[in-house]
């Protein structure tokens, strides 16, 4: 399914995200036959290089980030042939814009044009203003905004207002790459295409939900960004709340973008506010100290940073969705840098049902949706232990790994999203009111943390997090998944 011819204009085209994610994703879609020959990818950045210089960088990026077995010289050349480059400071209203205008004017006026902002979010408004004043905004153009959309409600509003002055909401695509992950999209299939799941998806059968995104990496070269952000802003306010929405939302009437987004918004609006009274019992924050990750000794966060900091590299929250479906069901959310392993997963713990047949009540079933790695679904059942004649139970897993046919690599989350922006399908992008509802919930936590209402814990790099985080679950008799 080839998309219509398009011009993709990337602001921040020499940056890490473009090289690591955007260009490889577009290459993969070319390989899959979805990109027409006359599409153009126009990189812009302040870096003063020419087209050949940019092509050389792009080629290097593909060599680094595309596995050998799906990287063919013919396809790479075809891809590099789509590239253009314009040296441009998107925030300055000077003559450099004429080079971009002139490239764009070579295409028919009704060609789809996607402006992708992979720059600092404070610049989005200025770039939009310049696009507008150079007559580069048309009903056929859309703008894709990378996160973070702000660091709180006020800054998010400023960014959204800045963009909204020049692009109506239906032309604004706020990307959250977690929504592009196949196994995150699979939550809807799992829930609504399987009556055996749909029938048990509520407080009546579900005791608790865990949503985890842990990484072994530290803050890499991004300490200056990360230290202004922290785990709550970097992962929870966006990615993990979106995952929570898909787990908790009511069945939408269709997969039309606004129908799905309305259903997610309803969940965000139903999140119980965390207040000064509850913040200490519902949240845990921590920083990693030196430790060993994957056999390598690594320094602590503060040593890496070289200065004191009040920024968390671990955050865990006990959230509540105040709807009849989820009455009394805790949603434990956590994320960590420098964790013991890289894993993103959803764990649904079902209630145990008393029965006198086997002595003790058999444990409740558990469903694990592995977002990454080993994308798949695992359902833990109680079975009779074959080693014993007496009716003794043990657990066994129904485990399915979701694979691509023909052993092809799993599509990266950016691939579909980048082309959805061309197709004009915003279903996997975040609407403005969702961003705001997420900030409304996160902001009081961040404020309380900044006032040190919740002590900063520590955890050794390479561990699963601070000891204190177990306390969030303990009063319900729960444990984090790896401790179960
Ligand atoms: C990004 C965060 O949005 O998501 C990073 O800014 C984080 O800090 C990344 O590493 C995690 O994404 P993934 O796809 O590797 O789970």
TrEMBL record:
The EC number of this protein is: 1.1.1.49
Among Gene3D superfamilies, the record links this protein to: Dihydrodipicolinate Reductase, domain 2, NAD(P)-binding Rossmann-like Domain
**Residues that, per the record, bind NADP(+):** 46, 147
Keywords attached to this Swiss-Prot or TrEMBL record, sorted alphabetically, are: Carbohydrate metabolism, Glucose metabolism, NADP, Oxidoreductase
Q: In which pathway does it act?
A: Carbohydrate degradation; pentose phosphate pathway; D-ribulose 5-phosphate from D-glucose 6-phosphate (oxidative stage): step 1/3
User: Which parts of the sequence belong to the Glucose-6-phosphate dehydrogenase NAD-binding domain?
Assistant: 9-186
Which top EC class is given? Answer: oxidoreductase
Query: What is the similarity comment for this entry?
Result: Belongs to the glucose-6-phosphate dehydrogenase family.
Protein name (Swiss-Prot/TrEMBL): Glucose-6-phosphate 1-dehydrogenase
Question: Which species is listed as the source?
Answer: Gluconobacter cerinus
């Amino acid at each position: 399914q080839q998309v219509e011819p398009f011009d993709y204009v990337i602001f921040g085209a020499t940056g890490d995200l473009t090289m690591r994610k955007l260009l490889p994703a577009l290459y993969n879609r070319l390989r899959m036959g979805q990109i027409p020959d006359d599409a153009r990818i126009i990189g812009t950045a302040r870096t003063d290089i020419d087209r050949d210089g940019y092509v050389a960088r792009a080629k290097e990026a593909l060599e680094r980030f595309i596995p050998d077995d799906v990287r063919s010289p013919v396809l790479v050349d075809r891809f590099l042939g789509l590239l253009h480059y314009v040296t441009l400071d998107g925030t300055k209203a000077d003559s450099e814009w004429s080079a971009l205008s002139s490239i764009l004017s070579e295409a028919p006026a009704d060609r789809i044009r996607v402006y992708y902002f992979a720059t600092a979010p404070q610049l989005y408004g200025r770039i939009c203003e310049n696009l507008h004043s150079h007559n580069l905004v048309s009903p056929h153009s859309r703008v894709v905004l990378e996160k973070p959309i702000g660091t709180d409600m006020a800054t998010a509003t400023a960014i959204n207002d800045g963009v909204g002055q020049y692009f109506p909401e239906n032309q604004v695509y706020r990307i959250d790459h977690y929504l592009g992950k196949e196994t995150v999209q699979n939550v809807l299939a799992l829930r609504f295409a399987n009556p055996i799941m749909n029938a048990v998806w509520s407080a009546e059968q579900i005791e608790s939900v865990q949503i985890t995104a842990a990484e072994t990496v530290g803050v890499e070269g991004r300490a200056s960004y990360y230290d202004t952000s922290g785990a709550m802003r970097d992962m929870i306010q966006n990615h993990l709340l979106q995952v929570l929405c898909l787990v908790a939302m009511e069945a939408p009437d269709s997969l039309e973008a606004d129908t799905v987004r309305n259903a997610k918004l309803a969940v965000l609006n139903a999140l119980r506010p965390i207040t000064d009274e509850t913040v200490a019992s519902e949240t845990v924050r921590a920083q990693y100290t030196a430790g060993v990750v994957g056999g390598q000794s690594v320094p602590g966060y503060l040593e890496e940073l070289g200065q004191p900091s009040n920024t968390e590299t671990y955050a865990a929250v006990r959230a509540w969705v105040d709807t009849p479906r989820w009455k009394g069901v805790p949603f434990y959310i956590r994320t960590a840098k420098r964790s013991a392993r890289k894993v993103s997963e959803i764990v649904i713990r079902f209630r145990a049902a008393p029965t006198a047949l086997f002595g003790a009540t058999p444990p409740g079933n558990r469903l694990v949706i592995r977002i990454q790695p080993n994308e798949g679904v695992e359902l833990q059942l109680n079975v009779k232990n074959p080693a014993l004649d007496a009716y003794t139970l043990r657990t066994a897993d129904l485990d399915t790994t979701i694979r691509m046919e023909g052993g092809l690599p799993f599509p990266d989350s950016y691939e579909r999203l980048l082309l959805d922006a061309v197709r004009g399908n915003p279903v996997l992008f975040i609407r403005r009111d969702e961003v705001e509802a997420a900030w409304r919930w996160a902001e009081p936590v961040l404020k309380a943390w900044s006032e040190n209402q919740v002590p900063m814990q520590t955890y050794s790099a390479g561990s699963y997090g601070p000891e204190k985080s177990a306390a969030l679950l303990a009063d319900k008799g729960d444990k984090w998944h790896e401790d179960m």
